[in-house]
Amino acid sequence: MRIRFLRLLLTVLLLPALLQAQVRAVKGTVMEGSNPLPGATIMEKGLPSNGAIANEAGVFEVKLKGHSNVLIINMMGFLSQEINVAGKSEIKVSLKADAKGLEDVVVVGFGKQKKITNTGSVSVVSGKEVRQSPTASVQNTLMGRLPGFFSQQRGGQPGADAATFFIRGQSSFASSNKPLVIMDDIEVSYDDVAALDPNEIESISILKDASTTAIYGIKGANGVLVVTTRRGKNGPPSINVKSELGRQSWAYKPKFLNAYESALLTNEALVNGKQAPRFTQEDLDLFKSGADPYGHPDVSWFETLTNNYSLQSRNNLDISGGTEKVKYFVSMGYLWQNGFIKNFSQKADVNNNYYYKRYNFRSNLDIEATKTLSIRTDITGRFGEQNSPITNSPNSNGLIGEIYSYNFLPPFAYPVYNPDDSYGHNISMPGTMNIVGRLALLGYSRKFENDLNVAVGATQKLDVITEGLSVKGTIAYANSNSYSRGLSRTTAAFPAYYYNPKDGSYTPRDPTLYRVPGWKLDYSNSPGDKVLTIQGMVNYDHTFNKDHRFYGLVLFNRNTATRDNPELVPNFIPSNFLGYSSRLGYDYKQKYLIELNAGYNGTDRFVSSKRFGLFPAVSVGWNIAEENFVRKNFPAIDLLKLRGSYGLVGSDDVGGYRYLYEQVYNREGSYSFGELHTPTTGIREGTLGNDEVTWEKEKKFDVGIDLALFDGKLSATIDYFNNYRYDILAPRASIPQMIGVGLPPVNLGRVRNKGFDGEITYRNNIGKFQYSVRGTFSFAKNTIVFQDEPAQRYPWLALTGSSIGQIRGYKFIGFYQDQRDIDTSAVPPTPVIPGDLKYADLNGDKVINKLDQRVMGYPNLPNTVLGLTLGFNWRGISFSALIQSAFNYSLRLTSESIDVFFTNFQPIHQERWTPENKENARFPVLQTPSSEISRGFINPSDFWFINAKYIRLKNVELGYELPASWLKPTRLRGVRVYANAYNILTWTNVTKMYQADPEVSSGGVLSTYPNQKIMNFGVNVTF
Amino acid sequence: MNMKRTVYLGLLAGCLLLLSCRKNSIEDEPLNQWQEDQIFDVTDSLGLYARNYSLDIYARLPNGYNRIASNLLDAATDDAVSSQITSTIENFTNGRITAFNLPDDFWGNAYTAIRKCNIFMSSIDRVPMIAKDEKKYWKAEVRLLRSFFYFELMKRHGGIPLVGNKIFTLEDDLNIPRSSWDACVQYVASECDAVKDSLRTDPVADQDIGRVSRAVAMSLKARVLLYAASPLNNSGNDLSKWQAAAAAAKAVMDLNAFSLAASFPTVFTTRKNTEVIFARQRANTTDVEKNNGPVGYTGNGIGSGFTSPTQELADAFEMKNGLPITDPASGYNPAKPYDNRDPRFAWTIMYNGMKWLGRPVETYEGGRDKPGGVVTQTRTGYYMRKFMADYTNSTAYANQTHNFVIFRYAETLLNFAEAQNEASGPDAQVYAAVESIRKRAGLAPFTLKPGLTKEQMREVIRHERRVELAFEEHRFWDMRRWKIAGKVMNGMLHGMRITLNPDNSFSYQVTEVNKVAFPSKLYLYPIPYAEIIKNDKLEQNDGWESR
């Protein structure tokens, strides 16, 4: 064995020397009509490792070694061809476009399948398409490209801008709805998707139905996202260098009123609240005239703190190629994104701005060790560095919240600098420190993330035993570590002065502080995540008598993960997954298709007798277009396939405590007896155990149609699905608190999730002008069929029957117009004044209270997504655009975003209800303290919850490929210059109420870094 | 050769499959976690974990400082208002309490604690403790705590469901009706009697300070019976209830184990003193100072000033000579309103000009501690001073004992005086009890006018309770049980607007600061709506149905 291993090693190391002497050479040219066709792969039949790739002129040369004398010519988008070269040394090959998509393959679990024989529901996007977007996280660009993919990008902080995403919406109201993520057959974490370098991606697929997900068994119910990375191809080394520079700016820029306007509204609200006005007429005049910039400052904090734009850059280098023995793809990437904060810290020589740096590398090697044994070695790594300022914000919602905050940064808060250049301060805001001073002086915290993944696999063909049989084993190890380091002040303070313009005096904010305190270093690290995956697989694929194809696989899969998962307490316990999966398929003449999939697997989340479950699925397909009567009568139909699938899949990602089946006692609570305080930690009874606890299950039903017409000019895929999630694990809500202990989750909930998705593509050309239009649509609506809840007083209060994430709220029916209106209408128990929000009294008891709240609106995740992709190619010019739109979701922001005296005054507050502006009021009367009923934070209602929608030009790319003739004198093989952009234009109804991007998350306040608009320029050079 | 290789590989793959199927790499149980049998361990002769289990029950005792949205419960009385204009504590005073919105919801916490007590009592016998008395003490302590938690619910809601020794499982029927108020009183009082003799006697050893002792059981009984005899719960004024309450309080006095501490402020800042019968033990902190101290200091001295004592409370303090400020003979000078007052005034309320952290407090308009603008600051011209250590000449706050007193001897005396006065009129015992408190306070003379009527004495005792027990979570319940909340909590509460004159003197003007109202249904809290709909048999209190 050792000798054999050494030999293998030698093979790898001495490869160039081992290239075998030629036997007989065949030259050829690949053409499409009269044009040469570069890029086709040529293989010798029976010796798949022996081959070549046609060069730019379509020319290739293959040295034959076997005995078959047949070459197989393959090219994406073209029909494969076999040519007998017996006795020939030069051939011409003419490939025909694969109009029907017969050769297209789709990635399915643990393998690939021809699109035509696939019976499952899969959507694919190519890496090339993903690379058109300058966003740092790949999932941000997928919605609208992949039917069935739903996402919302909640924030844009460098290094933390990844959208949350779901496949076909949500099905569980209690557990995670995060899809399983598989990269090159190995499970990786949901967060790893964001850190992918787009340059490494060959394709991204989502698996949506039972037939494609059942093979993942207990982990498949939320759908699966499959990433395939690029691999080397037979041919000379191709070196590809790409460099991009981009400009980021806020996708939505908020506007605030100036000091004078804000002071007016402040006084109005105080007077309405029967309090003394805060500003005198003299104050107002000074704010208006700006004559007293120190005593009566008027600062636009947004302009003061933020840059108009910040830069980002992305650079990639990849080398790929291969020989018959070794194929390689090596890629390196560097991404840098800067933050929006103006550079205040120059003097301190410390970078306090937000930024993100990411270095990716990947090396994918494929080695043909023997004629039947191939080895795959993938090594990939990522090093991330995320920086953010220590803002020491007095506002609990951080820096962004502070910029919006009336309490901490009103326009008249304080002058940024005093006349003597010291930091300004306001004596009536003793708790706050000058924000510019904080951003300049207080330091940063920096988080480092290092990931290293290795996957080694070997495939042994066993045609000796029976033709079409092979075994494959893979071991993968993933390790990620993170640590953070920060530089901060020993005391978070610095000298600031209140300058009194009347007598020119300076009063220190803190009389004991006369200098900026020194630096100190903070450091923390985490134990790191480790995931070990072991897979063994037996594969079989053989066609008998040309017509009967049998294929199948049996898979053993084992995975042990030790992860930092804050949802699990205690953390860092290894979680184990073990299982077998199998697939069995048959097709007759590619016409009648049937496939059985099953997973039998389990995890140690559950009691040992209840760990394993069987998840079977069946799918069938019928290629109608292959029937003779269709071929004869409807020649325009290239492809018409009906398919359907039904099966059971599970989800073990149930969250909560790691061992749900057992009641444990925790060390919590602390008390001290005696004359001295000597506390002892107490012991507390934990949540009751439930030894019946098991995974959630989902019955997935899917029917679909695949269609291609007119030589592939028009194609469509449409799916209808009806999923039923049951055994949803949630605590019973009908148990009184008198039980006196935390309730365990019970497998009781049921949710129906129905919808359809699909895509329609039209592509054609006018002469050399090739263009394509693709529309995608996704619709998924879920309904809670059952959840344990107490019998509510009124039917409109019940959450059962609503969608996951919907909440109760009042029905807005106008404003209270005057005192008489208040006296004659239903009112809340708390006082109201004219101009407050008036709500419908659903139970007719003349009192507005929670019993009048009905389940309303939509969840925060859109249930309808439309995408439109446009593209053309003409003489080296390429253009593509993605228009993305989302409909039917509810959005509400509170506190610093909108609430008076929490937020800085915004233009919408000028359109408040006043006795003079009853008709066109868009905001309730300003009053402080405000009437509770009119506060959206406490009293949700459809006044505050917008039925949100947006249409945005998500992505545009325009590129130009320099003509080959220009490059001839150089060694360059290709040069492409391009510009692309992200979040360019947005139409949304959200901004009618809230000054925020429509994708921010609802329910809370504005605390996240805003989403960014990116304009990007790049050049791509191939050697 | 090829065939051989294949066989090797096949074997290898087979081994791999077999190896990875080994079962024992996954532990069947979470070994790092403790189960019940490890807590109540049949081999643990020290009962260490069982003891720690009981600590968590103690840890659920109420902590009265700034517990409701950073405010004291007393900010919902006529003694103080919250300095924050939209604090949830104001729900109590502006009519916003509903069955959906109850800032002082103790329901879940109480039943959780009661369950823990039941588990402890049912399992502790398993533990083979060597020190026999310890087990007896612990069991009795926990049993008394159970009654304490019941009483916390009773004073809020009236009669509540009693669950006995039952430890519920998911299968049990939890549709349990409320017991009547009288039945609950009867239950708690009899429990106090039952455990009394199994508890440590007073005073306890130094290392046991903070534990439930015999006097705690007797004090709880005295308080429960006092509440039961009070107008809210004794509409027929059944004098036997007052007699029982007086007897229960007298029994505590007759223990002769407690006495009034010499210095009033030290009661709250020392762990061991003769006056405290029971306190929630807390760490040494500066949180009381930080939460309630004046806002105008910097660094460590910066306070949040959440509590604004009212002019009503300030005016309730007498002059040092024992006469109310309304008495023309008292010597009260409206131009110098804080001079020559009851010494407890300065120990309870921080007023303009009082020295604190090395400088006078400035609560005049525009002063450092009332600067105006948006920062939270006093609304009344006063800050709370009680419970804090003496920082007159300090430069910074230091960690300090801040136990929250639950029972102290002064209350016992006042409980006795009140019940005895109601039961048999203002006899010498009543005079003695009240006067001893006034004497300790430093009033001179401390004696009361002889020959007071029962009604006059009632007012004297109520007044004394207000100033002596201010901010200790008594006023809130007293104004309910006396049924005076509808009167004192109806209309405006006041503060002092102080202006600095050019000659550095001050002008004082009483101003309105907060409009309060007290709907009569608020004498008892609603039961949370979420609980009402989960239990068919649970009846809502009057006036709260669907509100």
> Mean pLDDT across all residues of chain A, rounded?
86
Mean pLDDT across every amino acid position of chain B: 90
Largest sheet of chain B: 2 strands, antiparallel
Strand order of the largest sheet of chain B: 1-4
Low-confidence residue ranges of chain B: 19-26
Helix content of chain A: under 10%
Which two chains form the greatest contact, residue counts included? A-B, 91 and 91 residues
Total strands of chain B: the figure is 12
Q: Gap between N and C termini of chain A, in Å?
A: 41 Å
- Category by helix and strand content of chain B: mainly alpha
Proportion in helices of chain B: 25-40%
Content of β-strand of chain A: 35-45%
Specify the number of helices of chain A.
Answer: 12
Stretches of chain A where pLDDT is under 50 for at least 5 consecutive residues are 8-22
The dominant shape of chain B is: globular
| Fraction of residues in β-strands of chain B | 5-15%
Radius of gyration of chain A: 32 Å
Q: Tell me, what's the shape of chain A?
A: globular
Write the topology of this structure.
The complex is a heterodimer of chains A (1023) and B (547).
Chain A: H1 2-13, H2 15-18, E1 24-32, E2 35-36, E3 41-44, E4 47-53, E5 59-64, E6 70-74, E7 81-84, E8 90-94, E9 105-108, E10 111-114, E11 122-126, H3 127-130, E12 149-152, E13 164-167, E14 180-183, E15 186-188, E16 201-207, H4 210-213, E17 224-229, E18 235-250, H5 259-272, H6 281-289, H7 301-305, E19 310-322, E20 326-338, E21 355-368, E22 373-389, H8 398-404, H9 435-441, E23 443-461, E24 469-489, E25 497-500, E26 505-508, E27 519-525, E28 529-544, E29 548-562, E30 574-588, E31 592-603, E32 612-623, H10 628-633, E33 637-651, E34 665-666, E35 670-671, E36 680-681, E37 684-685, E38 696-709, E39 714-731, E40 745-766, E41 769-786, E42 807-809, E43 812-815, H11 819-824, E44 837-839, E45 854-856, E46 864-874, E47 877-891, E48 946-961, H12 964-967, E49 974-988, E50 1012-1022
Parallel strand pairs in A: 1-8, 14-17
Antiparallel strand pairs in A: 1-2, 1-5, 3-4, 3-6, 6-7, 9-10, 11-16, 12-13, 14-15, 16-17, 18-19, 18-50, 19-20, 20-21, 21-22, 22-23, 23-24, 24-27, 24-28, 25-26, 28-29, 29-30, 30-31, 31-32, 32-33, 33-38, 34-37, 35-36, 38-39, 39-40, 40-41, 41-46, 42-45, 43-44, 46-47, 47-48, 48-49, 49-50
Helix pairs in contact in A: 5-6
Chain B: H1 2-20, H2 36-39, H3 48-58, E1 80-82, H4 107-123, H5 132-157, H6 181-196, H7 214-229, H8 239-254, E2 276-280, E3 284-285, H9 287-292, E4 307-309, H10 311-316, H11 343-348, E5 349-350, E6 355-356, E7 359-360, E8 383-384, E9 400-401, E10 404-408, H12 409-424, H13 428-441, H14 454-468, H15 475-481, H16 485-488, E11 491-500, E12 506-516, H17 529-532
Antiparallel strand pairs in B: 1-4, 2-10, 3-9, 5-8, 6-7, 11-12
